[in-house]
Amino acid sequence: MRTDILSPSRKNKSRPRLSNRKAGAIGDEQEAFSLSGLEQFARKVDFICRNVKYPEAFVIDLMKSLRTIAGNGSMQPLLDCLISWEATAELDAAPQTRKRILKAYSDLTSSKTKTTSSRKKFLELVNAE
C-alpha cells in the first residue's frame, strides 16, 4: 500500500486550476443562476407577458438581450430589458395611471404646465428620439 499519497506534504499542496476564471467569479456566477434567482426571473417574465399590450415585442427584445449576453457575457442588457419592460407592464396593467402620465406629458409638451429650462431641454431630447 502506498502511503506517500496521503503524506502531509502532499495534502497541503494546492491543486492546479482547471479553469482560467477568477476564483471569485465562480461564486458570483453560481449566485446569479440560483434557484431563487431563476424563480424571480420567471415571475418577472410572466408578469410582463401577461400585462404588456404587445408581448411579442417583449419576447423579441428579451431574445436580443440574451444573444447580447451570449456575445459579451455581461448581464446588464438583460437587466435593462427587464426593468424597461416591467415598467411598461406596470403602466399597461393600470390604465388610469397610464392616462394620467400621458396627460401630464401632453401638458408638458404643449406648454400648459410651466417648465424650467432644464425640463424643456429634456423634452426636446425625448421628442428628438
Give a concise summary.
With 129 residues, the protein is mainly alpha-helical.
Describe this structure in words.
This protein has 129 residues and is mainly α. It has one domain (36-128). The protein has seven helices and no strands. The protein has helices at 8-11, 23-32, 35-51, 55-72, 76-93, 95-109, 117-128. The longest helix has 18 residues, at 55-72. The radius of gyration is 25 Å and the shape is elongated.
Quickly list its features.
7 helices, 129 residues, 0% strand, mainly alpha, elongated, disordered N terminus
Strand content: under 5%
Low-confidence stretches: 1-30
Give the helix proportion (percent range). over 70%
Mean pLDDT value: 74
Number of domains: 1
Largest sheet: none
Series of secondary-structure elements, N-terminal to C-terminal? HHHHHHH
Task: Count all strands and give the number.
Answer: 0
Rough outline: elongated
* Number of contiguous helices: 7
What's the gyration radius in Å? 25 Å
Secondary-structure-based class equals mainly alpha
First-to-last CA distance: 76 Å
